[in-house]
Amino acid sequence: MARRVHTTELGSIACNELSELGAGKEGWLVEDPNLLCALDTQSLALANRSIVLVLGWSENGDPYNSPVNIRPTLSQIEAEWITALEWLVFDEIRVLAIGTSSGYLMIYSLGADLIHKQMIKPGRILKFRVRGTKRDLTQGSSSEEVCVVMPGAIARFDGADLLSMLQRWFQGTQSQFWEEKPKRRDPDDSENSYGRLPYQLWNVSKYGSGADAAITGMMPPPLMELQSAFIVGQSSQRYYCAVTIGDDAVISAFRLSEDRNRSLVGAILSKVVPATFSTIASFSKMIWRSEQKSPKGPEPKPQPFARASPLTCLKDHPRKGEKLTLSPSGTLAAITDSLGRILLLDTQALVVVRLWKGYRDANCLFMEMQVSKDSAASSSSYYEAVKSDYCLCLAIHAPRKGIVESMADEDRTAPSNCSMLQRQ
After folding, report:
1. Would you say 183 and 176 are in contact if contact means Cβ atoms under 8 Å apart?
2. Cα(5)–Cα(11) distance, integer angstroms
3. Is 267 helix (H, G, I), strand (E, B) or coil?
4. Which residues does 362 contact at the CB level (< 8 Å), separation at least 6?
5. Which of 63-77, 262-276, 333-347 has the least mean pLDDT?
6. Pairs from 223-230 (Cβ < 8 Å, separation ≥ 24)
7. Over the range 149-186, which residues count as b (16 or more CB within 10 Å of their CB) and which as e?
8. Structure pTM?
């Protein structure tokens, strides 16, 4: 009997540039704690503390897929290094998000050009989480939100703001292509010509700094506000549910309030005061002209925290939460702990619905599998798959066992959205 092959070859990424990341040494992909990886449908990004290498593959040997080196400008005084890496895909625009140990978000193009640099909050960026990016056949084509996870804090960027900024950058690069002398931007300028991206920031450190976190989706407002909104009118705020894991509390959940509209006076001041200072500064430059180059402005102050209300927590000493994996819809989360267990959390009901034991150092991944392919293909010569043909699966890699297991949902009509996953 011929051996079954479960993999499909995409291409080769072998190149000399991999030696800068430690390639050639035994265990360099597994044993290096500073090695980061971000996988896209067309490219693979690898990074160590100071270098990012983008590797692409193509069946036709496209020279555009040659390796790209990205060397971000990092602070030597603060010993800054790269701590997070993720792809951002908006329709035809593909860029790379880089997080640093000092709390900076950097966005680079595939040509190694710095598009945007912005301070989120002083501290290490642990992870980027992108929801809504087109990664399979059943999802849309644009990112809905980008979450930045930091110790004890979580930030949220709206996908529409990111897309608008990237479109302005793309139009700017197209116009500079026809100019004789393209404008060169200062790589150290954190507030560039494309503007500062608005975002929301929440403090979720009530139960410890936390090892990981995720915004699972929107949730209804508190009961008291719901009653007041019914009397006065529709509420202008939106609420999100965030799940965190860590040492003190294995699982904790928060209701995040988005302060979209504050008072009328605050809204007026937020518009008038910056314009007033800008006018005064411009007028002073006209009166007192100086041949010396004006010094760079001070760094912008970190954004204040919005309101985060604790909902529940699970404390089970000495168990500690280690890794959190979110399903594509955000309704399920797989959490690994220090006792070798995997907890399947229903993020809407905030209830653990399944528990698997004996999976130390495990890694989880949610994916969607087509379950009715054979029956559909036999009934028609041409058949286009729809969402109902797919089933949510949880893949578990157990390195100590040397196996990969798949938990699939057998009852796709379950109201909890595949909350009962069975071993396959």
Report:
1. yes
2. 16
3. helix
4. 336, 340, 342, 396, 397, 398, 399
5. 262-276
6. none
7. bbbbbbbbbbbeebbebbeebbebeeeeeeeeeeeeee
8. 0.78
